Amino acid sequence: MGAQDLVGKRYIVFGVASDTSIAWYVAQELAARGATVTLAYQKRFMSRVLQLTKDQKWIEQMEECDAASEDSVKAFYAKLNGQYHGIVHAVAFAPAEALMKPIVETQEADFNTAMVVSAYSLVRVTRLGLPKLHPESAILTLTYLGAERVVPGYRIMGTAKAALESLVRELAASIGPAYGHRVNAISAGPIKTLAASGVPGFDQILDWMANNTPLRRNVTQADVGRAAAFLLSPDSAGITAQTIYVDAGYVSIGAPPDMDRLLIEPRLSPPEGPV
Ligand code: NAD
Predict the structure, then answer these.
(1) Of the residues 116, 128, 195, 201, which has the fewest C-beta atoms closer than 10 A?
(2) What does the alpha-carbon distance between residue 55 and residue 38 come to, in Å, rounded to a whole number?
């Protein structure tokens, strides 16, 4: 078992839908460090979530919640007792039709849906969650490189994630002074989950990343879970308003590594034998 640095801490996690959900790994990592977790899940995933969470003693409470609805989020928080140390927002959605069409054909209703569910919901769960948080709590959301670069197939979700990353900065500046709460995002590399399977060409993106990141691999939900636990713990007390990359370094890459052959410098090779 790892460090028990979160014993006695309580977190609220939005976004567990299945055993592949990033939120599920974040929740498990918080638990591994001694915290207890309350889950907010979407009704359509209820049976999966109930199955998944059976006999998990570290789950304090589980309630359904639609992050797109003010009334639903209000009703969710009304069912919780006491104070919490953080909120995880791992929620995103865009209508499948909108992800299949070129961005120029995006319809207003689909744009609004993607923005409300994937970006505005962070404002909503933060605002309505404020009375439930201890001072100096941590709020964490999940974003993707498509917020700042064109990634094929990501389309309208890129716009929604750009808004989300901006909201991280705005919310941090807005609630930090009065409450001491921190607001951060993890920009995760691609991971095969239910949400990811809705992105056209996702498997090709995974292949590309595995061959082109500085670590020559994709990240896992567990990689994100561990970084998330850090950002939700007092160890990151001085970090707010940031987007932190858990992407095996891909964001630093300006050109594919096989372009090395164009360089005059010889490729660095590992030392031969003992040095
Ligand atoms: P996932 O499908 O397991 O999780 C998405 C979650 O969003 C689900 O739990 C779903 O119930 C929830 N959700 C959607 N609409 C909702 C609503 N109206 N109300 C409440 N919940 C709602 O997939 P995931 O990949 O674990 O996604 C979690 C987060 O990570 C998302 O924000 C996603 O954009 C982000 N992310 C994913 C990847 C990736 O490659 N998988 C990369 C970077 C960022």
Answers:
(1) 201
(2) 14
